[in-house]
Target: Bifunctional diguanylate cyclase/phosphodiesterase
Amino acid sequence: RAKQQQRGSSQYFSAAMGSDARERFKLLKGLRTGFEDSQLFVVYQPQVELDSGRVIGAEALLRWRTADGRFVAPDQFIPLAEQSGLIIPIGEFVMRTACAQLKAMQSRGHTEFRMAVNVSMAQFRHPGFIDMLAGALRDCGVSGHSIELEITESMAMEDADLVLRVLADIKRLGFSVAIDDFGTGFSSLSQLRQLQVDRLKIDRAFVQEAQSSTAGSTIAQMVVNLGRGLGLTVIAEGIETEEQRQYLIGLGCHEGQGWLFAKPMPADQLVAFLAG
Ligand code: C2E
Ligand code: MG
Ligand code: MG
Ligand code: MG
Model:
């Protein structure tokens, strides 16, 4: 009886795994053709100085709308793109689109505007990554000084030697670097100090827990203090309420991003947002 049950549950398990793998395979196939068919596009979420509300830049975020009009979340398709290697051409597309948009903003007089672009570990590992970055800058006629690359905290700690080496090349091109989703990984302080980064980005989870739980507020306070202590700029993501904004200002957080200020928007709306 027990044996039967065991066999039954393991059959169920492998069937579930099979259909999961099939789902992923289907999604990946869709992503590949979707990318070729221009179903991927980039939206921009403004980043502001917390006390003045001044817009200082925007984060480029990838979107996928399938042929039947459904949106697939980045958290679903980016891991697939990373595992399959598709992130290399897709990442180049995002970088070139963001650089071209930055150029357009600059020619409208927004010369201080900073564009933030997310990059994956798979891109860091790719031997052509630095050439890709240099090529995008050159072709779009922008300088790396107006662009920030966001790497996640777990990535920064994953392969320290590689990350340090690539970061040095990135800094040579003028880019600034932010550590994204900060507080969710396990950084060692000494590793963090070695990394040439400019900004810490507090993960949304801590912004949202900051006022509701003691642990959340302790972490938020510690991250802000840590960043400030290291001489970095601290930015919080996922700010949805005025209370959260005030609270973060009180902690000494410099910048923010979230629905309170603006949701991610298409390029033409970003131009209007900055003008208004
Ligand atoms: P992330 O880089 O941490 O981006 C912040 C996420 O928080 C975005 O989700 C954004 O839309 C969302 N967000 C911003 N403000 C608020 C808010 O006030 N409330 C709430 N609830 N959410 C907010 P999104 O666009 O779904 O992206 C998810 C993740 O996918 C990103 O997290 C990033 O890790 C990854 N991603 C997106 N675009 C790219 C890309 O071009 N390349 C790579 N490698 N990863 C990307
Ligand atoms: Mg990000
Ligand atoms: Mg983030
Ligand atoms: Mg996040």
Q: What stands out?
A: Residues 2-36 form the longest helix (35 residues). The pocket of magnesium ion (ligand 3) is lined by residues 180-181, 201, 237 (CB under 6 Å). The chain has twelve helices and nine strands.
